């Protein structure tokens, strides 16, 4: 099926399909379209949102049956094959021969990708490992000395995710200041951000402007370039006393204050209104993954602010309001906020 036809046919089952990447649509056309049509014949609608207990049980049943058919030792080997390089070839062959995609999604009227993510969440023994112990931090320093920034290798040695070990090392690699930002640190941050943005702009302009034009030109950039895809590890190194996440959060705060001319958008009644609007808009979007959210558009829900500001507010909402949020999918978190927290906020307002 060509891409346009796939979009058209999938739109009947997934209204927001045109907001999904082309590569994901192609995969869905192969894995889901026939399944969706079969469910339609049975009068069953495609589902999104939180997985029910019945669906979770069906996933367990499907995984157990597949293990029984193939003789693969464990669900971890099946769903995290890369952790077992010595068995990878055999497992991959068995998954292909016994139609793993079809078997895993059997009886569950949802996109295959969501079923797969849910299964990985349910069966990953490395999930929810909590804070790093003192011993783990020492191991991380040792492994980094041996392997540098090979986070994939280090993550396997520590049974943590790539992102987790990279972020934790960024925090512990040097003496970091966790107190309020000093005036000197703030100036260092602003100069570091300006430097990397100027460098980027000069590279972009290298082929389009003459040297005379460049020498007479003031730096003029789109607002989005002030906060999108900045090299935070490079900025961290220039600041020296803060790790990259602190730099990013502080820069977002500075930008927010400048863009709103110092207005307090998240205080008093405005704070309640912003939370209510954010939950409503996220629910209306009906997306299954945080990566599919148009955070730029959502920034208008709270005000003229950087998208990182909105993302930070959503993070605080889910952490403070959603029980066991780490074990829930993005759509489950949004559903909970809409059904349980929204009425409470509206009552407070």
From TrEMBL:
Domain called Myb-like: residue spans: 124-172, 173-255
Gene3D superfamilies registered for this protein in UniProt: Homeodomain-like
Pfam families documented for this protein: Myb_DNA-bind_6
One Gene Ontology MF term: chromatin binding
Listed GO biological process terms: termination of RNA polymerase I transcription
Chain ranges of the HTH myb-type domain: 124-161
Source organism per UniProt: Haliaeetus albicilla
UniProt cross-references to InterPro entries, sorted A to Z: Homeodomain-like_sf (IPR009057), Myb_dom (IPR017930), SANT/Myb (IPR001005), TTF1-like (IPR053078)
Domain of life: Eukaryota
Signal sequence segment: none
Full protein name: TTF1 factor
GO cellular component: nucleolus
């Amino acid at each position: 099926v060509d891409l346009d036809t796939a979009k058209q046919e999938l739109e009947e089952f997934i209204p927001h399909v045109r907001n999904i990447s082309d590569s994901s649509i192609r995969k869905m056309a192969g894995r889901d379209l026939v399944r969706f049509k079969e469910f339609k014949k049975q009068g069953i609608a495609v589902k999104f949102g939180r997985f029910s207990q019945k669906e979770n049980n069906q996933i367990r049943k499907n995984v157990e049956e597949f293990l029984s058919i193939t003789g693969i030792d464990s669900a971890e080997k099946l769903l995290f094959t890369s952790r077992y390089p010595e068995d990878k070839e055999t497992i991959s062959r068995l998954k292909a021969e016994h139609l793993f995609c079809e078997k895993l999604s059997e009886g569950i009227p949802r996109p295959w990708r969501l079923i797969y993510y849910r299964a990985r969440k349910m069966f990953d023994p490395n999930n929810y490992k909590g804070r790093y112990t003192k011993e783990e931090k020492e191991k991380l320093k040792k492994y980094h000395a041996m392997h540098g920034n090979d986070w994939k290798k280090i993550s396997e040695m520590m049974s943590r995710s790539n992102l987790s070990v990279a972020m934790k090392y960024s925090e512990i690699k040097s003496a970091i200041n966790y107190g309020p930002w000093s005036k000197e640190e703030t100036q260092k941050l602003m100069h570091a951000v300006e430097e990397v943005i100027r460098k980027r702009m000069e590279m972009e302009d290298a082929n389009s402007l003459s040297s005379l034009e460049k020498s007479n030109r003031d730096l003029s950039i789109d607002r989005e370039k002030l906060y999108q895809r900045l090299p935070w590890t490079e900025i961290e190194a220039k600041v020296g006393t803060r790790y990259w996440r602190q730099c990013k959060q502080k820069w977002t705060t500075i930008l927010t204050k400048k863009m709103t001319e110092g207005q307090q958008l998240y205080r008093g009644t405005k704070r309640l209104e912003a939370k209510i609007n954010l939950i409503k808009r996220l629910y209306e979007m009906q997306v299954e993954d945080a990566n599919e959210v148009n955070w730029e558009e959502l920034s208008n829900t709270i005000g003229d602010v950087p998208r990182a500001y909105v993302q930070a507010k959503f993070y605080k909402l889910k952490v403070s309001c959603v029980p066991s949020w780490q074990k829930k999918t993005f759509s489950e978190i949004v559903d909970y906020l809409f059904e349980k927290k929204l009425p409470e906020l509206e009552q407070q307002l």
